[in-house]
Write a structure and sequence with these properties.
The structure is a homodimer of 372-residue chains.
Chain A (H helix, E strand, L loop, with lengths): L4 E8 L2 E8 L2 E5 L1 E5 L10 H6 L4 E4 L1 H6 L3 H6 L2 H6 L4 E4 L3 H6 L2 E5 L4 E4 L6 E4 L1 H11 L3 E3 L11 H21 L7 E6 L5 H14 L3 E4 L8 H11 L9 E3 L5 H9 L4 E3 L2 H8 L1 E4 L2 E4 L19 H5 L2 H9 L4 H26 L3 H11 L6
Parallel strand pairs in A: 4-5, 4-14, 5-6, 6-10, 10-11, 11-12, 12-13, 13-14
Antiparallel strand pairs in A: 1-2, 2-3, 7-8, 8-9, 15-16
Helix pairs in contact in A: 6-7, 7-8, 10-15, 11-14, 13-14, 14-15
Chain lengths: 372, 372
């Protein structure tokens, strides 16, 4: 099935510059995907998400199957129409949230039985049902159903978990209905063990997907172990297909992973931090609740093009958080996403121009003024 | 001092169509002012407030003097610049909130001493300090400092309270610094007693203000008593100056008050209701949390131009409120304000064309499909 196409435009060391063409438009990579868990990027209208430069929104199968329900989303015309996001949508498989949020989980070869964290109702997720739900949601990119291997895990535990995920990946692929411009990604597992990552990558590429995700990272192993794992994993993935590092990360994580050949990211950091008063800026991370911002008439991030930075002072944002006004999270979420997208845009330009290492070094240098 | 000018363009029965020209632009009346208590219309960016058709934003002196503080707002360039609202801003005097929110109040001829409901700190408000604070906030329209007479009140209680407010009105006027395009409104008090309202109106017009508010209504007296009081009060106010009914009201209240000669309104109803899932529409009021909206793929209010009604289904809004997503209050606040402003725009057109009574009757007829 054609119409879903990744094109590698340039390489700069390990860093890659590409385009991903789909039924719902084209994304420039490296790309950061805004997390829209329950059919909304929290505290943002769809227009505001577009204004940040976000090209892809991620939806969570676990949340959406519980509320409003996949059949209901389908009846409302799919997730694109429901949330006013005609652009690319990637949905996860639900496997990660089942393990982190649901109660009374029971996992076997068939899949996972669990109780909703919202109302205790019983549900079953399998590779087949997860894939069907993502189809009903009308995800541009469907993720294979996998088990996110806990950390720490012994080699044997990681191997058993990964091999189960590989059997589920084959079942997910069999359940996927190819449609013009739609794609499905397999997920490499294997913990921090290079041999297992290689085995997983080989298993997935033998099945054949439109892209490959790297899962089971950013679960407590630390940045160094994450980067090591990326370095031993990406060489096993096809050069002409997109690579997606799931659930990562800080701006520094993103630059490090781009250098190691990753094309796509998603993370709740910019949106969650936006709701708690943590600002990601070219000068580093700042806690806007800090009293030193109370009289700061300057913009939070002078180089930023967002509504917050072009229209308001840091003192106003401080005031909004102090008064627990909803506009604080709204403006800061918009800013944080704008910063993340500007960082990605800068990375894309730098890769095209063969100066990615210098770009990343300059960005890291700028962050040193921050709180942490 | 010129530059602050009300022009009466048309009359239709008691209803008036005018323009209010100020240092911060012109408003068309009848006008509904969006409430921006602490320097933000809750759940809305300034751009979104503009998109609703709102021409004037109201700020609360009590809230702003406590946080972020009047001197700080002044240092940040005033309220217009702080909140990105270069348009008209009206600030109340703080008197009403002192009585409804503050603790340990002590009222005497000089003013009110109170403790902040936020941190218990002690503050003093007088006609002079309230006027000075509103100057620091850079309010286009300053309100005289008054005591909002409680309801019920005997004739003697209402008379004593009103006469104190009239002495405070004279002191407020003396403290007001005239500036080109800025104005100050006196506030008619007197409870539900026509003779006291007439006495109050005479006292205020003798002092002379750029406009006159009608205070102490919508405090429990009921719509019929409120309308009766308006009918006996507005004839005592100058025909060529704006009249502002404070803290009112429902769409039906607004149409009834317009018919009785009121030009300006403010009320938390559309914004507060927007945060709790209550929708004001041409078909009446609906509770969007109601399960009957779960599968409603149609827009909430098909004739409405807001983001919610043009981009999303009622089912999506129901989903957002069910999941307590911030986007629910954001979208519904925008809708409710858009509805209020469309109702005002329709009223202005109808008055110009001499068909206000028919317009109001048709609007009331439409509301009958609502929940309440």
């Amino acid at each position: 099935m054609s119409g879903f196409q990744f094109t590698l435009l340039a390489q700069d060391g390990g860093a890659r510059r590409g385009t991903l063409t789909t039924a719902h438009g084209t994304a420039q990579t490296p790309a950061f995907m805004a997390v829209g868990t329950a059919g909304t990027v929290k505290a943002m209208t769809a227009d505001q998400v577009r204004t940040t430069g976000s090209q892809i929104v991620l939806g969570n199968t676990y949340h959406l199957m519980l509320r409003p329900g996949a059949d209901r989303v389908a009846a409302l015309g799919g997730l694109h129409r429901m949330m006013d996001w005609p652009g690319i949508i990637l949905t996860d498989s639900g496997g990660y949230q089942v393990m982190s949020l649901a109660k009374l989980r029971k996992l076997d070869e068939i899949g996972v039985t669990f109780r909703s964290h919202i109302d205790g109702s019983s549900h079953h997720l399998t590779p087949e049902s997860s894939t069907a739900i993502q189809h009903k949601l009308d995800a541009t990119i469907t993720m294979a159903f996998d088990e996110c291997t806990p950390f720490p895990a012994t080699y044997e535990e990681a191997a058993a978990s990964m091999r189960l995920s590989m059997r589920w990946a084959a079942r997910s692929r069999a359940a996927f209905v190819p449609r013009e411009g739609y794609g499905q990604f397999g997920i490499v597992q294997g913990g921090i063990y290079p041999a297992l990552r290689a085995e997983s990558a080989a298993a997935l590429t033998a099945i054949g997907f439109e892209g490959y995700a790297i899962g089971g990272l950013a679960v407590g192993e630390g940045q160094a172990a994450m980067f090591d794992t990326l370095e031993t994993t990406t060489p096993h993935l096809p050069i002409d297909q997109p690579r997606y590092l799931m659930g990562v990360g800080t701006p520094d994580d993103l630059l490090g992973a781009i250098a190691r050949g990753v094309d796509m990211f998603d993370c709740v950091i910019p949106t969650r931090a936006g709701r708690t008063g943590r600002a990601y800026t070219a000068r580093g991370v700042f806690n806007l609740r800090n009293a030193r911002f109370a009289d700061d008439a300057s913009p939070l991030d002078p180089g930023c093009a967002c509504t917050l930075c072009t229209r308001h002072s840091a003192a106003y944002l401080h005031h909004l958080f102090r008064c627990e006004e909803m506009l604080g999270p709204m403006l800061l979420t918009g800013h944080n996403l704008t910063y993340y997208q500007a960082l990605m845009r800068g990375a894309r330009d730098a890769i095209e121009q063969g100066r990615f290492a210098a770009y990343a070094a300059a960005a890291r240098d700028g962050w040193r003024q921050g709180d942490d």
